[in-house]
Amino acid sequence: MPLPAIQESYSGRVNELTIGGGARKKTVTVGGAKTIPYGGDRAATGRRPVIAIDVLDSPPQDWPAVLADAYGGVLADPAAWAKKAVDEFGGDLVCLKFDGLHPDKGNLGADHAVAVTQKVIGAVGVPLILWGSGNDEKDNAVMPKVSQAAKGERVLLGTVTQDNYKSLTATALADQHLLIAQAPLDINIAKQVNILVSDMGFPLESLVMFQTTGTLGYGMEYAYSIQERERLAALGGDRLMALPVICDVGYESWRAKEAKASASEAPQWGDGAKRGPLWEATTAVALLQSGVDIVRMRHPAAVAIVREYINSLWGSD
Amino acid sequence: MALSGLEIFKLLPKTNCKKCGQPTCLAFAMALAQKKVSLEQCPDASPQAREALAAAAAPPMRLVSFGLGDAAAKTGQETVLFRHDEKFHSPTVVAATLPDDLPAAAAAARAKAIQALAFERVGQKMPVQAVAVLNRSGDAGRFAATAQLAKDTCKAVILVTQSPDAAKAALAHVKDAKPLLCGATDANAAAMAAIAKDAKCPLVAIAPDAEALAALTEKLKAAGCEDLVLCLETLDRWAEMRGLTLMRQLALKKNFRPLGYPVIAFAADGTPEAQVARASALIAKYAGIVVVDTIEPWALLPLLTVRQNIYTDPQKPVQVEPKLYAVGEAGADSPLMFTTNFSLTYYTVEGDVEASRVPSWILCVDTEGTSVLTAYSGDKLNEKIVAKAMKTANVETVVKHRKLIIPGYVAVMSGKLEEETGWEILVGPRESSIIPRYLKEVWAGQK
Ligand code: B12
Ligand code: SF4
Known about the structure:
The complex is a heterodimer. Chain A is α/β, with parallel strands linked by helices. Chain A has a single domain (16-314), classed as Dihydropteroate synthase-like (TIM Barrel), CATH 3.20.20.20. In chain A, 39% of the residues lie in helices and 15% in strands. In chain A, strand 4 (93-97), helix 3 and strand 5 (128-131) form a beta-alpha-beta unit. Chain B is an alpha/beta fold. Chain B folds into three domains: 5-55, Orthogonal Bundle (3-methyladenine DNA Glycosylase II, Chain A, domain 3), CATH 1.10.15.40; 63-310, Dihydropteroate synthase-like (TIM Barrel, Alpha-Beta Barrel), CATH 3.20.20; 324-446, 3-Layer(aba) Sandwich (Rossmann fold), CATH 3.40.50. Chain B has 17 helices and 17 strands. In chain B, the strands form five sheets. In chain B, strands 10-9-8-7-6-3-12-11 form an eight-stranded parallel beta sheet. Chain B has a three-stranded mixed beta sheet with strand order 13-15-14, with helices on both faces. In chain B, strands 1-2 form a two-stranded antiparallel ribbon. The termini of chain B are far apart. In chain B, 47% of the residues are buried. At the A-B interface, helix 7, helix 10 and helix 11 of A face helix 8, helix 9, helix 10 and helix 11 of B. The complex binds cobalamin and iron/sulfur cluster. Iron/sulfur cluster is lined by residues 12-13, 15-20, 22, 25, 28, 42, 44 of chain B.
């Protein structure tokens, strides 16, 4: 039976953006959606989503055993960790997260951060995300040096917020990196950050949006709907919303008690070693339905599940 | 889709007889379009006009229910493509499989395990609602026996077979439980439609793409089956998601009746992890029923939580009643603390207080269902609101001491709150998981 025609053309499209350059053996291109998820053929939906695996600059303090054990002995060695994340676990990118700079988590300095950056650059060929500690003062002091150390590599540098964007934007501009603009589950604030950053001469086409992320059971649906609304605005022609989107799935998921609790702590929830990674993977897959382009992840088993899911739709790469 | 005044006018007798109380038929039609009057008020309206109006008023996607009593499952009647546009109405029915080729003992054990499967999160029950009986044996007798087993779980039953004989045999046992019959294909349509109609149970239409499905539902409808569910049978995962999205668009935006039914999807092959990943996507993108093969709690908990999240009303956070709650045998010397009435916040705190095994009072403050920091920054949580909640709950008569533990994240409000209430304010930890340690170490030291 013939079906009525559905008017499926949108006036806007999401920017395509290529991460990686310089000594990178690979680049990763994200974005490009011309329609909603499954609103057309694969090509119209843009590039396939990619997975960035987290590497911390200093050994994680509070990771549950299920997560830490998956990495064996490399957690104190960011270079070995990054290599494992790419060679064994198949990360499309590595996200180097500088937790150790935070005054509450080690208060490490610029020398440390630069040294770690150089080591990780040398260890892997995939493009990098370099993500600050979240402490404005410390990040403003240190991240420009990290950016310089990665000059030429065209990394994705994060994050700039409504209240703290000048120093990182200037650095990213000088070193020709890409930037992550952050907003707290709020479309208007997201727009505002994008305007502030582009007013400094930084091209919108080099920005990725980050709306903070809620994990499954802890606000996932807020991130989901905000991202869906932003994507619809982008397709409707709003240039300020036409940016690829990143979610921080790994960190958020492993804070949930459903991910962390062992089977003896929560017998009614079954095997903890299986449940934790699946909590992370399910969060990622659910968020992908809102049109997300990059997911930051932690557990290799979770990465494998999401990889299999992505391949089942887009074909293996 | 509602008819316009002019469209309604064309259906009326156009005699302007005024029996309806309106000056003209046109005036009546306009009033009817605005739902100010009902068609009953025109005594001369033709049966055709009544039918056309009823059809136009029907929802663009049919509501289909199966199972009876406590086991009743409902799906369909969705109105939007994006949950933020309104909300999704009928939470996806999650079903677990019960194949009919298992040895008797294994089948019984599996049925029992499925029956016991249920979780609770933030005060809401999250059950697996249905059992999908699979006719893997190809044998009608075994299928019927397994259907009986499924019915005994007290969940809604889905009979998955394309064999009219097997369907008939199973329905002879479980017809009174109103199972969903899955289903009819182009090949068996006539036989299956007759069986479903006879048993008065809803029927799934199975076809490889949207065009074929639309043709099949028309055929089934002509055969007298109104309660239909769509099933897109394709191995191409992209085509499946694309098809589900397209069918939802056609049903809601084009009011295309042949596809105006809910959808069932099977994510029942591969590892439990792969099934849950795929089923999660299907829940978000328009499956009204999803069938998985796994019955592992570690796999179903995340899946059912996806359903809970996606189907939460975006305009109305899940809330608990704001009042004073006792955890354990709380008495006059027990600690008193406050939190917000956002379900997630309240139940997280309650769980941790319970884990401490220190009997306590939790004063649940009305913050319109928002979290501690969201409420505080939105001015839905301040010293006046807390003081009022304390008064309403009569906490002065409940505890002898005059100490109130507050969430660590709102430590800044302690000064004003102390002034407002005259109570001593103790700043608790930020993360509620630290509450057990806090109660054992800090609170215990207070006395
Ligand atoms: C989801 C969310 C929203 C949702 C609302 C969700 C809801 N129903 O509350 C929406 C999108 C609507 C929203 C709106 C706003 N939000 Co908001 N939101 C969040 C987010 C992402 C998660 C909140 C959440 O659900 N937390 C989980 C619950 C369980 O946490 P909780 O209630 O704090 O409870 C924990 C503890 O406090 C503790 N606890 C609770 N009770 C008690 C009691 C005792 C005795 C003890 C000891 C401990 C304790 O235990 C719990 C578990 O550890 C947070 C950021 C984040 N990741 O935390 C921002 C956040 C809370 N929002 C923020 C803001 C500013 C807002 C807005 C004002 C503006 C905006 N930018 O959106 C509006 C206000 C809306 C209004 N007018 O009411 C800020 C608050 C800033 C601040 N530090 O004050 C945050 C922190 C984001 C940020 N970093 O900027 N938000
Ligand atoms: S009663 Fe019916 S026919 Fe008579 S005026 Fe009203 S609408 Fe027209």
